[in-house]
Amino acid sequence: MKIWVDADACPGVIKDILYRAADRAQVQLTLIANQLLRVPPSPWIRALQVPSGFDIADQRIAQEVEAGDLVITADVPLAAQVIAKGAHALDPRGELLDADNIRERLTLRNFMEGLRSSGVDTSGPPAFSAADRRAFANRLDGFLHRKNFPR
Predict the structure, then answer these.
(1) Separation in Å, CA 50 to CA 33, 64, 78
(2) How far apart are CA 33 and CA 31, in angstroms?
(3) Predicted confidence (pLDDT) per residue in 15-44, tens digit
(4) Residue 34, burial from CB neighbour count under 10 angstroms (0-12, 13-18, 19+)
(5) Exposed/middle/buried for 59, CB within 10 Å: 0-12, 13-18, 19+?
């Protein structure tokens, strides 16, 4: 199992949690972004820079991910792609997306996108909070524990 991160919009505090988890669990963590990323020195952590462009990082993750891997992303269409390949998706706010809830999330995302494109101000998501950070850390810890990685 590997962890893949859609890193362009991933909050820094979530990246920090992932760095610690990768070292503790000794699991490969790969951050993919279209900008240069600095990551701590570790045999378990690497960053890949992809060219700029619409969904290039998402395409690379979808290409590389394998069944059983975990993808950290807030991008619902990317989450749907990786779930279809048998991987898992966790958003930075701690929601685990799976075959049972991804269709609903896609429908809501498409509805909101339609509203925005017609000029409706949907205000966007709420600010990232300490509760979101805790929810993410707890969900990640539980996921790794179920996969039999050390705490």
Answers:
(1) 6, 13, 16
(2) 7
(3) 999 999 999 999 999 999 999 999 999 999
(4) middle
(5) middle
